[in-house]
Design a protein that fits this description.
Elements: H1 7-12, H2 33-42, H3 45-49, H4 52-66, E1 70-72, H5 79-83, E2 88-91, E3 95-98, H6 104-109, H7 115-118, H8 120-132, E4 138-144, H9 146-155, H10 163-171, H11 173-197, E5 201-206, H12 214-235, E6 241-245, H13 252-258, E7 263-265, H14 272-279, E8 284-289, H15 291-296, H16 298-312, E9 317-321, H17 331-342
Parallel strand pairs: 1-4, 4-5, 5-6, 6-7, 7-8, 8-9
Antiparallel strand pairs: 2-3
Helix pairs in contact: 2-4, 4-8, 8-11, 9-10, 9-11, 10-11, 11-12, 16-17
Length: about 350
């Protein structure tokens, strides 16, 4: 099947389809027993990301189980700072840890000179997936948006309030802009290389976009993603991009108008009637079932799925969650969800 004929690509081209394509963020992961077994065999999380045979296997596991309309590359947004020379590691129970950046000198020591060499296993994973996926299944590549990645790089991991990163941006905007510019260039180059390795769709995750006031949202979230989108389009004009400015609220509208992204992934909090009326004329919508409704299952999940399909399913739409699957999700609930969406 030609790439443009796949359901995901048709939806992102603006088609309203008889039934929406479905895939789920973090669909390969800890809720699947086969993933947990493979992860235990490999050891460290980054080892899994950088071992193509294993990364291909865990990417394919949910496709075999559920027949999703897209597979998303198994990797992590923090492979980019790792490839730029920052120390990154993952600790069980604590998540990602980084040797935090503290000043302009730390930023100056980062370099993209060896980035593609470091990320070569990721590109090999994509090349293998392009061959092994079912003909009708689209292959999604991805990266973190500059602000979200920068927040991890400065905070040294996840954060409740992003106080260190935001204080840097407010008090030393020039050196913060240098970091964002480096990440724009590196992320665009990384996504372009993913397309050249076989990705048919790209998603840019700005998981912490919602922490900024409007002016800073535009400067540190919207404009960097728009520049990445511009660079990807210049290299590969036929590749659609899905943006995910999680938590942006009313600023989703500006993102839809100005980012250049064909798709817009909705977080759980957005009112769907507003999204239908304001955003769907400008972009294909994706989302936005609460991941904890997928844990709950039963009547509450079914009612929410019906509401989503009835509200936004008649226009250009991709069914997904409002964020990633959580580890306690029963696999059988995912199967029920797929049946509901396709039923």
């Amino acid at each position: 099947m030609k790439s443009a004929e796949k359901l995901m690509r048709r939806a992102l081209a603006g088609e309203s389809l008889p039934r929406p394509p479905i895939w789920l963020m973090r669909q390969a992961g800890r809720y699947l027993p086969e993933y947990r077994r493979r992860r235990a065999e490999i050891g460290g999380f980054l080892d899994l990301c950088f071992t193509p045979e294993a990364a291909v296997e865990v990417t394919l596991q949910p496709i075999r189980r559920y027949g999703f309309d897209a597979a998303i590359l198994f990797s992590d947004i923090l492979v980019v700072p790792h490839a730029l020379g920052q120390k990154v590691w993952f600790e069980e129970g604590r998540g990602p840890q980084l040797e935090a950046l503290r000043d302009a000198e730390d930023v100056a020591r980062l370099s993209s000179a060896a980035m593609h060499e470091t990320l070569a296993p990721v590109y090999e994973t994509l090349r293998r997936l392009a061959v092994e996926l079912p003909a009708e299944t689209a292959l999604i590549g991805f990266a973190g948006a500059p602000w979200t990645v920068a927040s991890y790089m400065i905070e040294g991991g996840s954060s409740r309030d992003f106080a260190t990163a935001k204080s840097w941006a407010y008090s030393r905007p020039d050196s913060f802009a240098d970091l964002i510019s480096l990440l724009v260039e590196a992320t665009a180059d990384y996504l372009i290389a993913q397309v050249e390795a076989g990705a048919e769709i790209l998603q840019i995750f700005d998981s912490w976009a919602g922490v900024w006031p409007e002016a800073e949202f535009r400067r540190w979230c919207l404009r960097p993603v728009a520049e990445i989108r511009r660079r990807v389009a210049a290299a590969h004009p036929d590749i659609p991009v899905i943006g995910f400015p999680r938590g942006a609220g009313l600023l989703y509208r500006d993102f839809a108008v100005e980012s250049g992204c064909e798709g817009l992934s909705l977080d759980t909090t957005l009112p769907l009637t507003w999204a239908r009326d304001t955003l769907q004329p400008k972009a294909t919508l994706q989302g936005n079932l609460d991941p904890l409704l997928l844990v709950t299952g039963g009547d509450p999940m079914q009612a929410a799925v019906r509401h989503i399909l009835e509200t936004v399913g008649k226009g250009p739409f991709i069914f997904n969650l409002g964020h990633g699957i959580v580890p306690q999700t029963p696999p059988e609930h995912v199967a029920q969800l797929v049946d509901l969406v396709r039923g």
